[in-house]
Amino acid sequence: MIAEALNRLVRELTKLPSIGEKTALRMAFHIISLPRSEAQSLAQSIIEIKEKVTLCSVCFNITDCNPCSICESDRSNSDTICVVESPAHLAAFERTGQFKGIYHVLQGVISPLRNTSPDDLKIKELVTRLQQGKVKEVILAMNPTREGETTAIYLANIIKPLSLKVTRIAQGIPRGGEIEYLDESTLKSSLEGRREL
Hints:
There is one protein chain. This protein has helices at residues 4-13, 21-33, 36-52, 69-72, 87-96, 123-130, 146-159, 184-192, and strands at residues 54-55, 62-63, 80-84, 102-105, 137-141, 165-168, 195-196. By secondary structure, the chain is α/β, with parallel strands linked by helices. The longest helix is centred in the N-terminal third of the chain and has 17 residues, at 36-52.
């Protein structure tokens, strides 16, 4: 019979993405084997991230300062804004070191199956940023999924009347692929090969 505390930890770990029961059990046994100080450090880092991390009021990336360090920095190409679905996608582009513009995180995509409408996303905030007149090009960097394509088309239709250049990252990204799991060279190529919508 397994201890109830272990069962509870396994149940909590299986709530994480891509963590099944077997992986959760392995992780739980690893946590049990940690020295108490390391287990406490892990627990404290989880609590700290929930207490200190928030969304940037400008780009809606996750941050522990507001505005975030990207919005506060003197980016070399701040007239180009890359619109992404999530903070994980922004992090993936940042890892390439190739994009020197600014970002806007939608916090999702349009998905009727998940009851996510344009009003549930940070689209109004994007339009407000674009109307300030500093941005000249908008790169739409959604996943090449049905929902991502729908969102990109929706955004393009809203942005084009603002007389801005609207581009889409190149489709070297496999259909159905997830941006945050792609290697840096694929993402670099997708940025370089973007096309105008």
